[in-house]
Structure formats: structure tokens, C-alpha cells
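[job 4471] stage=fold_predict status=RUNNING
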Amino acid sequence: MLRYYIKYFVLYAFIVWLSLFIEVYVFMDPFFLHPKLYIMPVVMVALLAIFPAYLEYKLYNKNQEKIDIPLPKKTNFQPKKDRNDVLTGALRKDAFNEIFGMKILEAKHLQSPLSLIIFDIDHFKQINDTYGHLVGDTVLQELSHIIKDNIRSSEYFVRWGGEEFILLMPGTSLQNAAMVAEKLRRAIEAHDFDKVGKVTCSFGVTALNEKDTIKSFLERADAALYEAKNSGRNVVRVRR
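[job 4471] inference complete, writing C-alpha cells
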């Protein structure tokens, strides 16, 4: 921006000096003795030295005014909510929804496998009714620790709602996802939960198909979970 100001200023100064030169040449004799012809170049040089510095000063002050503008006292800004569930440390459902569609598109674009596991705690309502909600919360926390200890950092562990969870597994085939689900099922079954003892989970597993939408992908995994529930619970079921 500054170089354009200087360019036009130099052009303007040159035109002024040229008009003065013509004026003296035409109307004064001897023109070369007139002091204006010698004073003007000196004035031009001085102005050329001062003018850029003046422009820099003005531009600096203008930028400082923009920086120093105070924020309004009242604002509609809302801080972003924590992405993780407070109780379990798993990713929140709303935070997961922000990236779920993107991961589906990414898998389709790269032609890379993407698997989904949905699971929940068997008879969790009975645990709450028998031992109370505080014990139920402890069960959820212990379960979350088991899951985190048995999955990769690249996988998304999500609290989908209540005692239901999701595990999204980029780069994992359906066969390998089913093996992970079985590993998790056994780890949960083998764990002694505080004040409760044994707890089990049912698992539904599926993998992304080329024509899948978010809805169809989730519905197929949920159907696999429903099948596991109807098969006596504490099992893994797969839907292609």
C-alpha cells in the first residue's frame, strides 16, 4: 500500500516541478538564474524523505487503534463445551457427531476400512436399582478404564448415552473389529467390579459399506447389538 502512495506523490511532485520549470522558461529571462529552479529539487528531496515516514506513522497508529479496540461488555460468545464425558472420560456424543461424518467420507475417499462397535452393559437398570446410582456410576467408570486399556489411541471411544457406548475404528476391518469386541467382552467379564462383582456387556459390530450414510451405518450396528441382546446377552454379533 505504501509504495503506491509514494509512486503517486513522486509523480505529482514531478508534474508540479515541470509546470514551474515551463513557467519560468516562458515568462522569465534569464530562466536559469531564477532561484525557484534550484529550490524546488531540494524541497522535493526533503518531502520524499518525510512523506514515507509520515505515512508509516499514520498506518501504524491506525493498526494500533484496531488492536486496542476493547471487547464489548456483553457478548453472545459461548465457550466450547468439554469434548469428553465428565464421568467416564469417553468422548461426548455431540463432540463425536462433529467428526463422525468426516471419518465416513475420509474412509470412502481413501477406500480404507472403517468399523463400528456399539455395546452396552447388560441389566444396568438392575444394578442401579439394587446398589444405587452412585455404584452404577462407579461401574461406568471402571468399564471405561477397561475399554481405554484395550484400544488404540487412533480409535474413538464414545459415551453414546446412559450405559451405551460406541467404538469407531478407522483402518480396521470387520473381522478385526469383531476380534476386538470379543477381547473387550472377555476383559469386562473377567473383571470384578467394586460392590457389584461380575458385569457383562453385549456387542454389535459392523463395517462401513460404500453406499452407507451415517444413519444406515449406525442402524446396522444397532441391529447387531439388538441381536446380541436377544441371543442371551454377553455375546458379540456381527452385521455386514
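[job 4471] summary: The chain has two domains: 2-67, 93-239.
[job 4471] exit 0
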